[in-house]
Amino acid sequence: MGHVLPSGGGKALMNVDDAALLLLDHQTGLFQTVKDVTVAELRANVSALTRIATLLKLPIITTASEPEGPNGPLMPELAELAPHAVYVPRNGEVNAWDNDLFVQTVEKTGKKTLIMAGVWTSVCVMFPALDAKAAGFNVYAVVDASGDPSQMASRTTLARFAQSGVVPITTNAVICELHRTWRRPEAAEIADIYTVATPDYRTVMESYQKAKDVGSAQKQYQDRM
Amino acid sequence: MGHVLPSGGGKALMNVDDAALLLLDHQTGLFQTVKDVTVAELRANVSALTRIATLLKLPIITTASEPEGPNGPLMPELAELAPHAVYVPRNGEVNAWDNDLFVQTVEKTGKKTLIMAGVWTSVCVMFPALDAKAAGFNVYAVVDASGDPSQMASRTTLARFAQSGVVPITTNAVICELHRTWRRPEAAEIADIYTVATPDYRTVMESYQKAKDVGSAQKQYQDRM
Amino acid sequence: MGHVLPSGGGKALMNVDDAALLLLDHQTGLFQTVKDVTVAELRANVSALTRIATLLKLPIITTASEPEGPNGPLMPELAELAPHAVYVPRNGEVNAWDNDLFVQTVEKTGKKTLIMAGVWTSVCVMFPALDAKAAGFNVYAVVDASGDPSQMASRTTLARFAQSGVVPITTNAVICELHRTWRRPEAAEIADIYTVATPDYRTVMESYQKAKDVGSAQKQYQDRM
Amino acid sequence: MGHVLPSGGGKALMNVDDAALLLLDHQTGLFQTVKDVTVAELRANVSALTRIATLLKLPIITTASEPEGPNGPLMPELAELAPHAVYVPRNGEVNAWDNDLFVQTVEKTGKKTLIMAGVWTSVCVMFPALDAKAAGFNVYAVVDASGDPSQMASRTTLARFAQSGVVPITTNAVICELHRTWRRPEAAEIADIYTVATPDYRTVMESYQKAKDVGSAQKQYQDRM
Amino acid sequence: MGHVLPSGGGKALMNVDDAALLLLDHQTGLFQTVKDVTVAELRANVSALTRIATLLKLPIITTASEPEGPNGPLMPELAELAPHAVYVPRNGEVNAWDNDLFVQTVEKTGKKTLIMAGVWTSVCVMFPALDAKAAGFNVYAVVDASGDPSQMASRTTLARFAQSGVVPITTNAVICELHRTWRRPEAAEIADIYTVATPDYRTVMESYQKAKDVGSAQKQYQDRM
Amino acid sequence: MGHVLPSGGGKALMNVDDAALLLLDHQTGLFQTVKDVTVAELRANVSALTRIATLLKLPIITTASEPEGPNGPLMPELAELAPHAVYVPRNGEVNAWDNDLFVQTVEKTGKKTLIMAGVWTSVCVMFPALDAKAAGFNVYAVVDASGDPSQMASRTTLARFAQSGVVPITTNAVICELHRTWRRPEAAEIADIYTVATPDYRTVMESYQKAKDVGSAQKQYQDRM
Amino acid sequence: MGHVLPSGGGKALMNVDDAALLLLDHQTGLFQTVKDVTVAELRANVSALTRIATLLKLPIITTASEPEGPNGPLMPELAELAPHAVYVPRNGEVNAWDNDLFVQTVEKTGKKTLIMAGVWTSVCVMFPALDAKAAGFNVYAVVDASGDPSQMASRTTLARFAQSGVVPITTNAVICELHRTWRRPEAAEIADIYTVATPDYRTVMESYQKAKDVGSAQKQYQDRM
Amino acid sequence: MGHVLPSGGGKALMNVDDAALLLLDHQTGLFQTVKDVTVAELRANVSALTRIATLLKLPIITTASEPEGPNGPLMPELAELAPHAVYVPRNGEVNAWDNDLFVQTVEKTGKKTLIMAGVWTSVCVMFPALDAKAAGFNVYAVVDASGDPSQMASRTTLARFAQSGVVPITTNAVICELHRTWRRPEAAEIADIYTVATPDYRTVMESYQKAKDVGSAQKQYQDRM
């Protein structure tokens, strides 16, 4: 947030002005084969990513693999939370980067930093991540907004990302890396987005609010005495 | 649901007409000590229980342990989903059954089957469960709408329930035990409640709906040919 | 197998001549919510049960909960492996025992020992198991040919079975309890059924056969010298 | 706490006036073989039990198995936290109940409810627990203030306790069962004891206090405006 | 050890003078299907049981299921550690209690307490355990000197033992329950047997011996000064 | 599949026209020491690899380590699914790359991309993978079609692959990397191969087909009205 | 410890004379979202780091993210154990390195080796670690004195550190890397610090001391004879 | 084994003629803090390494950290299995490479490949491994013949090894990398060493031998007919 944050820090972090979000094959049929994260957490993380990207005006591109077949429809939250996202249909390609329209749509954003998530991580994220990296993009793979069919696949995918120079990251870190400072007008909505990806944070906020109210009420009571 | 289901089955199951739901100390401070279920799942399960009880008109009684102190406020979903629930304040008693008003409120419902959930399972559920069992009630303890501070505590609590004649049960089973038949007017809402306690069921329903639509569209297309 | 085994043992075991197999709601939609056993193992175990029951001529009754809806169709292996099984349609009842035709079909077998498996264990097995137990049957619940939506549900269900006098058992134990002796004509087919429920047993048999062949060949070679 | 709590509840709970705490073989050599709980948690739980028992004036009896040998000395916290505890030396008996002085010391307390913890759970707790149960005592086994040499041993021990009528319980539940009400003079110290057995509770209290102070300060600030 | 221990304790424990050890189907082929304990631990536990039984002169009966077939030979440690054990061949019966000679051999010992271990726990131990219990014996099932083909099977088996009145126990507890006192001539050998079932105990003893030597040497050094 | 896919994507992926599959020591004796993946899954993954390679005409080379000894015979599925595979016997070398005939057979394929799987991963895959990498090949190690004797070994092996520039991958990713597009004549058979490596995908397809049929039938019914 | 240790070793280790400790956002509200380490262990590890740094006179810098809000206050141990630590307030920046005062404070220490720990690891440690690395510092990230909101986040963070050239390390290794030799005046206090981060070490020391005393006493006794 | 194996393979593997084994601080006191591998497995792995190194005449150097203190004595197996090993005493240095005599002893072997194992992995192995790597040695760290005080430490250590160019390896892989071919005179003893590090291999061999004997006997029987 160069325009918000005067600091000279963050040179090693992603630049929010140069980033786009690619959501790859978050389809309900594929979800039923995911075993390294619960589907409930996966959907929540994808929703959180979609909300922060929408709030901070990152381009969002979605795509699906054979959505008329067993892979199923895209999770409906995507259309609800990011009506402005561009959907790119594919012609059967497993690797989104094999689809010319998809690559052109990415290039048209003018962004060089790509935040990718999808199902399966080892395939639908890995393949375009490797291709995009080879094409000169900075690539972040959001592993908990993605899903793999086994724990062993998940560990293997993480190792392959690291080996290939794709940066493995989690949803909460993406939000923070885009967020950068609480001194901004969107702070309240960002706080709410955190509670989607990290539900315990909601509990912490509820406890905090109540305790603050108790403190305030006790003070008022003491003052009256 | 005697009035819905003509069958002679279910004699060994809970009788929806004789049941009340007791929600004990679902407070945000206590949640932060729960380690045998995620807080997100715990809250979802409590919400699902609250919704099914409200839909099927079971009495609901809520209570809290020192909500002005560190234990924190009741989770706000309770008031939203069950505005008709009766809240019983306590005077510091750890065991709700030690509070006369609580016991009277339970007795006033006239129900002999008590479905209990709370935090901690080993304390806030266990103590009134044992007392209620001793007082002649049929008691069900919903272990995944409750929470304990360790996995070891959770296993121990389960063993103590079983040993004491308190029936251990999970949220999805309570819903089913109250639901009993899909041939009832509330079926659609009950299906929705299942997706709260079992989020994968939502994914299954989405895949199903899409595939049915594809089948319908293909049929229409074939018919036109 | 009184007719095979002259021994006086086994008085505490299930009597193969008095047993029937009930397969409850093994539907592909429900499978996608099962989290306490892999679906691959679950299906293998159900297939193994179906095969041993068919081989030893136990009555098999199958049923499904709303198979036209999201719960999905019965796993097709059932029809392949047990074409003689009786399928009982239901009218929306969650609890098969709530369906009169189901209860009558069970009673018509004349068997007093019921081996039950299904999805969810905590519901589709638990409810008829409790009702059947109350009606005087001996009930065995095959927990790994059944499935529950969480590990916590699975542990809870196991405790409730034990508390209620329903005997918890696993597929390999059911096969053995029906099998009883290797001195019977079906031994080779039973050995093959074991490899379905316990795939490592197949590996053991392959290693054994090869080593025996090596021993035989070496002997032949030595004899020639 | 009959003298504190006017309620008629708690009939199924342990009676603080009739209870004694037996701490069996909490020795540092044996600790090094414990694998079902971390030694840090085990020691913290034993300390918490010792503190609540001391605070509420329960008799405490300690003993050790061959403390001059590899089993090692008693954990020193016992002497620090409960200087009044009675130590009973043994003459090589594995089962404390085999030692006449130990049994006499227990009987001399006049209490009929025995809260036991020790290392190993499956031996040093199990044996006197079974003997005491047979001798007519009510016995509680505190499984997380005890330790077993494997997870499998731990599960097996829990099942044997339940089967034998010994009540399995955890440290936090013992504290609560003795505590019973926050309206008592010892409340602040009891709150502190909770933080020993459940360290997350300390964190909750710290967050609470800070938030209350913030609320109070903000109120003061608002009032000034 | 009535003849060693003058105490009146231990009434609820097994009586060493009335106990026999039954080792059922500890065969190397079956071992390869065991998944609830490592085979290394399983063999060590069986060896420890065999040694303590041999030392204290308990009758030992071994048997095998089709040792010429894939189930494989008995683990050779049995013959080494208990040359006096009686081996009962079977005629294909899965349940050892179905074999008349086996039952007669058990009865001939005159013992009423049977300590059983075997592979699979759910079958080779469960079946004779249930039959022996029904025939009036006291039965202990040593779950970690036995093995089951899955963790789910292991948990289920434990629940079925508890439900049936068979006492679930672990190897270390059996040794202790037979051992009873360190004031006996066999103490040193028993200490060595503990290190087989609980290898960490060996480490504790080694550290102890070294530290004691250091203490002795330092004292000697100080005395010289 | 350059000849199928017109796109310019996939530059960073394996080239199906330049790849060979090496299956190393998938022997039933070695399988019995594998502890990081179930043998059932391991065999299914090897079968899936073999089928996709056969379908897409990749050269397949198999080899075994001392198949007349305890290591046992190759899993028989290999010969069934890939009758055209070339088997290279070894003369006792642990590392297949130490065998000249093996290296020559690999070189004769003319392929520079080697997809390797075997048992143990840390040895039978690692050694030739390192040697082949050093010799200038692109090497992929399929970790879930391979097996290691412990979880710790599995993690260590993954780290060593990544460190050495060998690409760690899973079976489902290999299939996808070879598959590349659903718009090809082999699509139906490839879909079937997916169900072998990812059995939940079969369940998804069954649910899909049934739901589509329901949609079609309901449409037909509506049209008639 | 160049001034203590004459050896030429340790060239690849951190140089105690060039190191500073940065403690980032160890706040009680954030603690309640940590799921990859227990909060009790996390606090103990942070305390141990603080003590060793204080003892060996490393500069310590602390900071907090919005401590008046839900994130909560810094854990109070910091002020107790390191009263000399410099606290840098922030103006809402998530990344401490975005705060100019923080960077200046770091630079003013003149140290080029930064030992960082904080909550969340993936954010509050990762961001300044990456920035500091880019600015030419040697950076160590102490992963068990830090916390992440899921196990998946924890694994991902570890991979990203390794990929970025930040050295992942644990508390016990930091202590050892600073400690370097037992021949130094602070040895006794360092031994005590080990017991904070590795509580089992305390148990080992207690057993050792007792055994040494036994050895000494026995020697004395023997000498008297 | 250049002198045994004519092949040109193995260029990327360790060279047995250039390797030495360094065993660092395998002391019984430290063992009691190890939590990422069981002590039984750790000791077995160290014994297996010692045996293969002795058999193949690799130099072995052992050392200990303060063996008169709580860290305890070296495991006695070392002296039994490798009487020729050189023991280097230290003067309090945590890092063996800080001890000049140790470094000289290593250098005197003339070997450039160092196989290291020790307790703790993160310290006693890591520090000399990093120093030796910096000094130009090829370093292998045997992670399962080493031990760390937590699972988190273990994962972190593995990542740091990989990041630093130290090769992480397991005991079974070291044996194989030294073994290289079954066509050597030591084959039988090497097979026996495998059973120490991989106990399931022993079970496989026992099953194999028995089955081969059965095959031989059946052949003999058939021939007689």
Description:
Eight copies of one chain form a homooctamer. The first copy, chain A, is globular. A six-stranded parallel sheet of chain A has the order 3-2-1-4-5-6, sandwiched between helices. The first copy, chain A, is α/β, with parallel strands linked by helices and 225 residues long. Chains in contact: A-B, A-D, A-F, A-G, B-C, B-D, B-F, C-E, C-F, C-H, D-E, D-G, E-G, E-H, F-H, G-H.
Secondary structure elements and pairings:
The structure is a homooctamer of 225-residue chains.
Chain A: E1 19-24, H1 28-31, H2 39-55, E2 60-63, H3 77-81, E3 86-88, H4 100-109, E4 113-118, H5 121-134, E5 138-142, H6 151-164, E6 167-169, H7 171-179, H8 187-197, H9 199-224
Parallel strand pairs in A: 1-2, 1-4, 2-3, 4-5, 5-6
Condensed summary:
Chains A, B, C, D, E, F, G, H: This is Nicotinamidase. The structure is a homooctamer of 225-residue chains. Chain A is α/β, with parallel strands linked by helices and 225 residues long.
Give the quaternary arrangement of the chains.
Answer: homooctamer
Number of helix segments of chain A?
A: 9
Number of strands of chain A: 6
> How many domains of chain A, as an integer?
1
Helical coverage of chain A, percent range: 40-55%
The main sheet of chain A orders its strands as 3-2-1-4-5-6
* Helix vs. strand class of chain A: alpha/beta
Question: Tags for this entry?
Answer:
Isochorismatase-like_dom (chains A, B, C, D, E, F, G, H); Hydrolase_YcaC-like (chains A, B, C, D, E, F, G, H); 225 residues; six-stranded parallel beta sheet; Isochorismatase-like_sf (chains A, B, C, D, E, F, G, H); 9 helices; Nicotinamidase (chains A, B, C, D, E, F, G, H); homooctamer; Rossmann fold
